[in-house]
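Protocol step 6 of 9: fold each sequence in the batch and record its structure tokens directly after the sequence line. For illustration, a two-sequence batch is reproduced in full.

Sequence one:
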Amino acid sequence: MFRRSIARALVVLAALAGVVAIPSAAQAIPDPGDGGPYGPPCYSLSCDGYNPAEVGCDSDAWTAAYAHTPSTPRAELRISQRCKAAWARSVGYYYVKIERLDPPRIETANANFYTGQVWTRMVGMRGYKVRACYWNASSSGCTAWITFY
């Protein structure tokens, strides 16, 4: 009789062990860049080289800084908080670049008379210094280095 109750207890414990699972830390905390139903398509460094408009990172974009002279168009440092990525946008007829210090990466684009506005591909920026720059035949300039988290 004693053996039978021990056997029943083991069966019950085995059944409970199969039903109750404790998630690991990797399962319990989702990666914000996992691309889930509400997650971004890329996150920080995984956004390097992607077009923000093509992957949807432009949907929450805002201009963090801009560089220009009073009589010329400007280069804007655009940020996606959701994707933790940055890019440069030219408003006018300039060459623009987005630059990340470390790990180093530069993406460039050029606007012309026909486009008027153009943007670079993205660089991941979570915890890294980034800036946007413009240049043409007569002038050039950059935003300050900015770090975002």
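Sequence two, same batch, same settings:
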Amino acid sequence: MVHLKKLILSRPYLNRIPDQSLLPDVQPTLPADNKVHYEPTRAAYPCATRADDGSFAMVYFPQAEPDSIYYFYKRLIELRKKQPVFCEGEYVWVDKNSNDYLAFLRRGKDDVFLVALNFSEQALDIP
């Protein structure tokens, strides 16, 4: 996922044009229910976009699979809604100077959560 994000961010965003003509043999599959974010019948449906000057093109799969970053953020949002400490708690930084990770405590009246994000490609020990 890190490499995909780097690739997508390495190209200009505002001059992208959706262009399904780059995939002439792919027939669109419409969702049965617009409220469902993952449908196996649509998960393998590719989309294409290109730069308006023709300097690059991208083909991607917009459907979020259950282990995708979309569902990861969805679970984080659900946790935030269930745990008031994430909205009202105090921040206590574990280490502000690391480039490899971000770690902090979120303290509330009754709860304390450790939030740790690893930005490196290796497992890390956080002090």
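Proceed to step 7 once all outputs are recorded. Observation for sequence two: The CA atoms of residues 15 and 87 lie 36 Å apart.
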